[in-house]
Every structure is written in structure tokens, then in C-alpha cells.
Amino acid sequence: MKFATKAIHTGNEPNLKEGGSGDVVVPIHLSTTFARAKVDRPTAGYEYSRSGNPTREALEKNLAALENGKYAFAFSSGLAAMTNILLLLKQGDHLLSIDDVYGGSRRLFTKVFGDFGLEFTFADFCQGKEILPHLTKNTKVIWIESPTNPLLKIIDIASVAETARAKGILTVVDNTFASPYFQKPLDLGADIVIHSMTKYIGGHSDCVAGGVVVRDEQLSVRLKFLQNAVGAILSPFDSYQILKGIKTLSLRMKRHEENALKIVDFLSRQPKVKKIYYPGLSTHPNYDIAKKQMTGASGMLSFELDTDLALSVKFLESLKIIAVAESLGVVESLIEHPASMTHASIPAEDRAKIGLSDTLIRLSVGIEDADDLIADITQALEGI
Ligand SMILES: *Cc1c(COP(=O)(O)O)cnc(C)c1O
């Protein structure tokens, strides 16, 4: 099946067996426990909802299919999903991360797992050979976001994964910004894909959720064990919400990209806009890699105004349709100021080091009418 068909049908198959109800929408199974006729045999494979729940399982099956993976696991947030990946490691292990990783990921690495003896290095790399100087004999994981947040850098996933694999190192890709509609890291050689499903996959700003997808059976066994042993599972209701969101994922992603292209075109003609970061722009430094590994550039873009911090803030606060808010990848357009919002937890000197300036603005383009979004940006620009 093709992507849009899988998004709607995989995991959502109606139960047409004798006694099945034929629901075309997966029921929300709220039961925490499952009764048995035989003491030593769960009735339909379910024992207790932390270890397995039919609604969550439907979502996990669907998510695995979207990423061309085999096994998926749903968690109560993107960070809970990442925590389960980090728990694959042990004291003394080293993780190499791309430098402008999501602020919450960096916080989880250094301020939580750092205290448990994991070592972290943050570096700027694009190709596999560029990771070599940063590897130690204890490096177990390379952590990539592509596009990155908020500078929309592109990392050559196939090249990094190939170099890592040759050294027995796992490649993890946070695919939140591209969504599986535009990029499938497992097809590019990555071992683990993680998602904040709060963003594009859920898409409606009404559910915090995380997901992990793998192909390798051995990894899946350990992850399933950890999901149950640690317990940060996604609830049945939230699993239903995400499954519902996924049904329109392909339509939404197309529109996000279409609108982003129109806004980028508009911004590129504004004298008050100094710089635009968008992987769908042919002037993006890694446009060729983006074209090779993505089928579209999605709806995330950043830009710098040719002004100071105070007027950048004034611009943001003058917007009427576009909401100033954290989060991204949802139907409504959201705009934010990384230095004071999403990336405020990164020390100022580290922000400067990775090129994250105080006038940088990140825009998550929604699926409203692009003309209205452009009119809103126009009136806010006029005020500065
Ligand atoms: C939001 C986000 C996360 C964290 O996910 P939560 O669902 O908020 O826990 C991780 N990575 C990226 C790229 C994100 O945008």
C-alpha cells in the first residue's frame, strides 16, 4: 500500500470475524486489565494495559508502517520516547549528538542522563566522515535531527548511518520535523526513528505523545521490555487521538509545504528580512542532500529580521492570526523566539556557538489560507 492508504487503514482494520463489531474506527479500549477463561492464557494476548492495549497497539502498527519499519512503540511524550532509547545505554557509554538538537533533548541528555554516567558530545556534522573525530571507544549512539531545530540544517542521514554502522554504532534519527511523509530514515540506513507525535503526526495541538520505530527484532524486544518496565506509555484515548490525526497526515503535509513555499517566497522579497533558513530553498547550503533524502521540505522555517531583539519581539507580538507559542507541526500556524522560548534552557554562550542568534524567529506554517498568513506577516512587519 502507498503512504496515504497505510495512514488510513493499517492498524485500523475492522474486526469482521464472528462476534467482531466491524468498527471502522478503532475503539478506545479503556480497560486496564483483561479477563481470561484459562488461567495460563490471556484471552486475546492482552494482560494489563501498560504491557499491551488494543488501541495503543493499533497506533503502533500504523506508525511502524508509516516509517517502513517493523516495530513501533508509543509513549506519553516525545521525551519519554527518547528516555527509553537512552535506557538502552549504560554507565560510561558515549552519545554524539548534532549540536542544534531540540532544547529538551539536550536537557534530557546533560541534566538527567549526564548524572547517571552517560557521556555526551555536541558537534556540527553533515557527512559520515565528519563524525569520526568525535567518536570515542565508548560511542554507542549517533543522535541526528534533520532538518534540525531551529536552524533547519540538513544532515546526510545515509552517509552518517553508513559510517556509524561500520563501527557498530546505532544511528537514531529524530524525524519530528520532516514527518514520515517527507522522510523515512530507516530506508536511509538509520537504526531507530523517534518522533514527538505531538507535532506533525498528531497535528492538532491536542495531544502530547511520542513514538519509536525500529526494524531490528533484537532492538524491538529490548524496547518492548523497557516500555513496560519503565511505564511511560501512551493512554488509550491519546492513542485514538493520534490515530485520528494520522488519517490526514499526507493531506496536511502537502499543504504545510505549499504554504511554507509561498511564505518563503514572500519573505525573500522583504528588505526587513535578513536571512531565511528553509531546506526547500535552492540557496540552502545542503539543498542537494535535502532533495536526495526528503520528498518535500515540510512547513518549518526560520528567519532573521534585520533589526534588534526588541523589534523582533514587537514583530512577534503584533501578529494576529499566527500565534506566538511553543510547539510546531500543527494545523494552526505557530511562531516563536527560540532564544527566549524553546531554546532558553541552552546557555547563551552555547546558543551563540551554534549560530542561534537573538533575532532568530521560527515559524511553523499551518494549513490556513497562505494569503491570510502573508497578510498577517505584512502588517506585523509594517510596525517595525
Ligand atoms: C517537541 C520535540 C521533542 C519533544 O517531544 P515532546 O512530545 O514535547 O516530549 C523532541 N524533538 C523535537 C524535534 C521536537 O520538536
TrEMBL record:
UniProt GO molecular function: cystathionine gamma-lyase activity; pyridoxal phosphate binding
Entry's family note: Belongs to the trans-sulfuration enzymes family.
GO annotation, cellular component aspect: cytoplasm
UniProt entry keywords in alphabetical sequence: Lyase, Pyridoxal phosphate
Region of interest called Disordered, as start-end residue ranges on this chain: 1-20
Cofactor(s) required, per the database record: pyridoxal 5'-phosphate
Residues recorded as bearing N6-(pyridoxal phosphate)lysine in the entry: 199
Single Gene Ontology BP annotation: transsulfuration
EC number: 4.4.1.1
The name this protein goes by in its record: Cystathionine gamma-lyase
Domain of life: Bacteria
